[in-house]
Amino acid sequence: MADRLTTLQKLIDTGVIAVIRADSGDQLVNVCRALSAGGVQACEITMTTPGALDVIAQASRELGKSALVGAGSVLDAETARAAILAGARFLFSPILNLDVIAMAHRYDCVAVPGAMTPTEIATAWTAGADVVKVFPANHFGPQYLRDVHGPLPQVKLTPTGGVDLNTAADWIKAGAVAIGVGSSLVKKDLVNAGNWDGLSSLAKQYVDIVATARRG
Asked: Per the UniProt record, which residue ranges are transmembrane (predicted)?
């Protein structure tokens, strides 16, 4: 099992974290497999998905060597510990809960809390956040990351919420170390149809956009 810093570096290198939120966990291992085949190697299973812990456990067993499997919508330390024991290597949260950061690090797991204001972002970073999730990012836009990085250039930021093919490059150019992409990547029509090749192709588009944006 990779340590926290190795996991963090892989998340950053990949550049795209798939936020997988579903009404059922039945197809999610196939979703993760298809995303990984397209180059999106970080799959965040949200805890709002029925049977999320079982999906995390299964995906970790089957895809542990080809993909990073993590948990999203983690609101408290108890959920954090359960997700880690199920196999999650990183934890994303829409909120800032210091106990979640502490629990993640206790188990050598990457912690990415959610924050919006400069005070919340600085508090999360001071508490040891590996990356700070700017959420909901779509209400502010890429310029907000530039503004935050003015006084806080050391903080690693990842936007989530409304990121799509049209804005992905702008977020990277604004200083995001990675982007979190939900329904614009994990499209319901592709999942419902079992169109795994289509999902892999879409994943590759995001990975290519991030790579191009990073090259400047």
From this structure: none
Query: What is the rounded distance in angstroms from the CA atom of residue 179 to the CA atom of residue 142?
Result: 11
Global pTM value: 0.96
Beta strands in 75-173 (DSSP E): 90-92, 110-112, 114-115, 132-134, 157-159
- The pLDDT tens digits of the residues spanning 104-118 come to 999 999 999 999 999
The catalytic residue positions are 44, 133
Q: What pLDDT digit, counting tens, does each position of 11-42 carry? A: 999 999 999 988 878 899 999 999 999 999 99
* Ranges of each domain in the chain: 4-214
CATH class of 4-214: alpha beta
